């Protein structure tokens, strides 16, 4: 399946049971809510998906389940976050074998690669597969900035086709557009910058709080891209306290608590993460409950003409 890197791509959480096994039934319930809301792709095994504590067999189960349930409606994208080039290439091959439609690729983990090493890493993985690739540019968390100069060299690689823009610098969207035009699709990767980056030229977003609030996320995207900014602003203001849960080190626990409160997830995480307790849980729960108490009635957004 060819991927149009636009619209809302949820970075899905991985659902676990109380016995620390995959909860594919609950995963499927959440996935169905995403599809009903109108997402245009899904991403498995990202940071929010707790990929670092999943076994290869568990990743396979998640991908196979998603591919079967999605049944071609939207592309299934698998995240790759590895320290060794050889292992990243192996994961790319497995993703293709399992039926994935594309990859999201992080720079090398743990080792802070320089310009030449980072570009070579990306080119090596891309050359090993025909799957379309979205690079994940998040120097805040992963300490490697995929610079414009790196993109100059990567532009010659045909299947590197998009970037998840998480530098936290909104003007980077403008820089990318000025330098490369439409060569790379740009997806906002920071929930709290959704409106700003969509207005300045991003094609879509890789979202976190969409896991708990799929309809609100897709409605926000469509209102903004349809040019209905005045209608989007009240929804964005309501959403912002929730969106801020996405930029905390415990975003997994925070977003899973939100999923549990909206009935499409649970609070179970895998160690070393621990479920929230005490005052921290009370505080985050207060944010979620306030949002639910004031949850807005959404406009009829599915029909909106999104052309940009």
Automatic annotation (TrEMBL):
GO molecular-function terms, A-Z: 4-hydroxy-tetrahydrodipicolinate synthase activity
Active site as annotated: 136, 164
Source taxon at top rank: Bacteria
Gene3D superfamilies named among the record's database cross-references: Aldolase class I (3.20.20.70)
Keywords: Lyase
InterPro entries (alphabetical): Aldolase_TIM, DapA-like
SUPFAM superfamilies for the chain: Aldolase
Residues that, per the record, bind pyruvate: 206
Stored PANTHER family: DIHYDRODIPICOLINATE SYNTHASE (PTHR12128:SF72)
Family: Belongs to the DapA family.
Protein name per UniProt: Dihydrodipicolinate synthase family protein
Originating organism: Chitinophaga cymbidii
Upper classification of the organism: Bacteria, Pseudomonadati, Bacteroidota, Chitinophagia, Chitinophagales
